[in-house]
From TrEMBL:
Domain K+ potassium transporter C-terminal positions: 552-781
Membrane-traversing stretches: 47-67, 87-108, 176-195, 215-233, 245-266, 323-343, 363-390, 411-435, 447-467, 472-490, 502-522, 534-558, 578-596
Membrane topology designation: Multi-pass membrane protein
Residue ranges of domain K+ potassium transporter integral membrane in the record: 53-538
Assigned keywords, A-Z: Ion transport, Membrane, Potassium, Potassium transport, Transmembrane, Transmembrane helix, Transport
Organism domain of life: Eukaryota
Function: Potassium transporter.
Region (Disordered): 658-677
Subcellular location field: Cell membrane; Membrane
Source organism of the structure: Hevea brasiliensis (Para rubber tree)
Family indicated by similarity: Belongs to the HAK/KUP transporter (TC 2.A.72.3) family.
Name assigned to this protein: Potassium transporter
């Protein structure tokens, strides 16, 4: 019994040790399980969010591409179908066009070439400007490259990318050629923004005639014009209130056309699926000859909206757009075109109204209503893309100053440009009422689309070499395949210039002249400012009073120069007897980045000795940012100025060197000064560099508790001057050419640029300066 009890005790001891060991093992196991569970929940929530964004992208990105089945087959066979096998060949071309251009080229490749989520022609240009010095207006500064959003990859000196970079930067002609290429593509996008609403809405309401055969085409055109006018008149309200309807409408549209397509395949002819074999493309061209080649202009319409897909990229993550296209858009479009082709094999005489005639009678009216709504959504997508492009062009000095209104407080990308809106409406109504049929508008739209795609291909060559640093063989393969396909389409649409294809060329030519003339005039004015800026020796020779009476207050002198004293300042002080106690030169500068964070917005620098009370403030913006001259802007400017003075005083005690700035950026002194060029940024993220020493911000904040008497006096003086009053001094510059100028320069500057300056917004309207605080200084410059 004793031995048994001893064994039981030993057994229970072993069990207790095992239980304790299990408890110790369970604790990390439970913690690991918790981490895995949290990771699973995060992954699940991110997946749901991605799917939700993919659903929402349907309404913004794919409306234009989804409206194409309304008119593709009619524009492919405007003279009727001569042989049913031609339908199989045309369908095969549509399938492989959708596969190669939207799916392989844009969704998988071009969308990756976004500028921090921003797409479009100007986004690609901005990306190139950050990786190579190709801007035609030389206002770059080394401090701009240290912004958090100024991302660019490192290029090694001996790489092929470095050779390409040096080749681009080697001659101004290549920089201008790159800009011209970007402006051509942008002008064509604006032309497409006029043509897409016209052909989409007109094709959608064309279905009314099927149920009412006696209805004339004039009535259909009138209904389309009424819808278009209503659409443009509602733009000032923004799409924030009704935007939530866009995605369900477009999703319902894709499901309807996909389902109808499957129904028609099963009902009419399953043989249409032979079109997935590329052999029928060869047979189509061999049999059709020139007629088959000319029909490519109609097949080209099946991929319209692809360029808008890239332009509207900023609204959603790339992955969500890729999911939406591969899971919904692509298969539904393939089924829709295949279903129409199956119907046309049995009813070749119905090619004019192929889409509506292939719809089952029981759902005809619901589909007509959804088609009209989808056409409106498609039109809205292209109009929004046009507004976004104009905003980017304006920020890069490639478009006259126009009023930009933000229609949503939540989404900064939702903007409205009144002047452009009414121009688009007038031209869109004129195209719709003037042509009155889908065929000629389709020819015009195809011309605009293929030129935009060619421009994107050429820009992608530079992106792949400079930004991605791809092997030259990959670049050659991409370029060769793209140019073969798009060049073939381009050669076809050129033959239809006299059948409506001239419309986008005329519209694009008009916008191109406007954009380039404005950029050329701005560039010449900037070059004059750079060459005629006042030397610091002259300013220092005037003394602290600047040779004038210094009256209480702060004068904000607006200039385009980020360095040096502008020429207009010398014009000002030689013609007026007094100047303000504090002078701040304000430069509003747009950079080739999509946005500049608020805490990195202002760059402050002192001009001259401390007792001159002169400063420079560079306000930096990206092409998606909106500059607003309001009380908030003014308050941030003065807060940055006060912070600069505090930091300047502290840094004087930290080191004997005067070269310092924020964020560890070593600052260059002014080219015309030796010891008085202290520069600072309003950004305060990490450290401050002073000479050879690095001072942590925490130490500076603690040191800021004790201020020097000089700092207190200057801060108090600035505060008193601000309370006395702030005056905004703007230059009213008239640009003209000299007598020796060439003819083209006189036309561009004296007529086009001068006319644009008269009709666009003035400086006081751009900066929203109250008239009681405004002082205009006029001058005439000859370039």
């Amino acid at each position: 019994m004793a031995s048994k009890g001893k064994g039981d005790n030993e057994e229970s001891g072993y069990k207790s040790k095992i239980w304790v060991l299990d408890q110790k093992l369970d604790q990390p196991m439970d913690a690991e399980a918790g981490r895995l569970k949290n990771k699973y929940e995060e992954k699940k929530s991110s997946t749901l969010l991605l799917l939700c964004l993919a659903f929402q992208s349907l309404g913004v990105v794919y409306g234009d591409l989804g409206a194409s089945p309304l008119y593709v087959f009619y524009n492919t066979f405007p003279d009727g179908i001569k042989d049913p096998e031609d339908v199989i060949g045309a369908l095969s071309l549509i399938i492989y066009s959708l596969t190669f251009i939207p799916l392989l080229k844009y969704i998988l490749i071009v969308c990756r070439a976004n500028d921090n989520g921003q797409g479009g022609t100007f986004a690609l240009y901005s990306l190139l400007c950050r990786h190579a010095n190709v801007k035609t207006i030389p206002n770059q500064d080394h401090t701009d490259e240290q912004l958090t959003t100024y991302s660019r990859s490192t290029i090694y000196e001996k790489s092929f990318a470095a050779k390409t970079k040096r080749w681009l930067e080697g001659h101004s002609f290549r920089k201008n050629a790159l800009l011209l290429l970007v402006l051509v593509g942008s002008s064509m996008v604006i032309g497409d923004g006029i043509l897409t609403p016209a052909i989409s809405v007109l094709s959608a309401v064309q279905g009314i005639k099927l149920d009412h055969p006696k209805m004339t085409s004039d009535i259909v055109v009138f209904v389309a014009v009424v819808i278009l006018v209503g659409l443009f008149c509602m733009q000032h309200q923004g799409i924030d209130r009704v935007g939530w309807l866009f995605a369900p409408i477009v999703l319902l549209w894709f499901l309807l056309i996909g389902g109808i397509g499957i129904f028609n395949i099963l009902k009419y002819d399953k043989e249409v699926l032979k079109a997935f074999s590329p052999v029928y493309i060869y047979r189509y061209f061999k049999k059709g000859g020139k007629d088959g080649w000319l029909s490519l202009g109609g097949i080209m319409l099946s991929i319209t909206g692809t360029e808008a897909l890239f332009a509207d990229l900023s609204h959603f993550p790339v992955l969500s757009i890729q999911i939406a296209f591969t899971a919904i858009v692509f298969p539904c479009l393939i089924f829709a075109y295949s279903g129409q082709a199956a119907y046309l094999l049995k009813n070749p005489n119905h090619v004019v109204d192929a889409f509506y005639r292939s719809i089952p009678d029981s759902i005809y009216w619901p589909v007509l209503i959804v088609a009209t709504a989808a056409a409106v959504v498609a039109s809205q997508a292209t109009i929004s893309a046009t507004f976004s492009l104009i905003k980017q062009a304006l920020a890069l000095d490639c478009f006259p100053r126009v009023k930009i209104v933000h229609t949503s407080e939540k989404f900064l990308s939702q903007i409205y440009i009144p002047d452009i809106n009414w121009i688009l409406m007038i031209l869109c109504v004129a195209v719709t009422a003037g042509f009155k049929n889908q065929s000629q508008i389709g020819n015009a739209s195809g011309t605009a689309v293929v030129i935009v795609m060619l421009v994107t291909t050429l820009l992608m060559i530079l992106i792949m070499l400079l930004v991605w640093r791809c092997h030259w063989i990959i670049v050659v393969i991409f370029t060769g395949l793209s140019l073969i396909v798009e060049g073939t389409y381009f050669s076809s649409v050129l033959c239809k210039v006299n059948q409506g294809g001239w419309v986008p060329l005329v519209i694009a030519a008009a916008f191109f002249v406007i954009m380039y003339a404005w950029h050329y005039g701005t560039m010449k004015r900037y070059e004059f400012e750079m060459h005629s800026k006042v030397s610091m020796a002259w300013v220092l020779g005037l003394g602290p009073s600047l040779g004038l009476v210094r009256v209480p207050g702060i004068g904000l002198v607006y200039t385009e120069l980020a360095r040096g004293v502008p020429h207009i300042f010398s014009h000002f002080i030689t013609n007026l007897p007094a100047i303000h106690s504090v002078v701040v030169f304000v430069c509003v500068k747009y950079l080739p980045v999509y946005t500049v964070p608020e805490d990195e917005r202002f760059l402050i620098k002192r001009i001259g000795p401390r007792n001159f009370r002169m400063f420079r403030c560079v306000a930096r913006y990206g092409y998606k940012d909106l500059h607003r001259k309001d009380e908030k802007f003014e308050k941030r400017l003065f807060d940055s100025l006060f912070m600069f003075i505090r930091l300047e005083s502290m840094m004087d005690g930290c080191s004997d060197s005067d070269d310092y700035s924020l964020n560890g950026q070593q600052t260059e002194q002014s080219r015309d000064m030796n010891d008085n060029g202290n520069k600072a940024s309003s950004t305060m993220n990490a450290t401050i560099s002073s000479g050879d020493s690095i001072v942590p911000l925490d130490a500076i904040r603690s040191a800021s508790q004790v201020s020097s008497p000089v700092e207190i006096d200057e801060l108090e003086f600035l505060s008193n001057c601000r309370d006395t009053g702030v005056v905004h001094i703007l230059g009213n510059t008239v640009v003209t050419t000299s007598r020796e100028s060439k003819f083209y320069k006189k036309v561009a500057i004296d007529y086009i640029y001068a006319f644009l300056r008269k009709i666009c917004r003035g400086n006081s309207a751009v900066f929203n300066v109250p008239h009681e605080n405004l002082l205009n200084v006029g001058q005439i410059i000859r370039v």
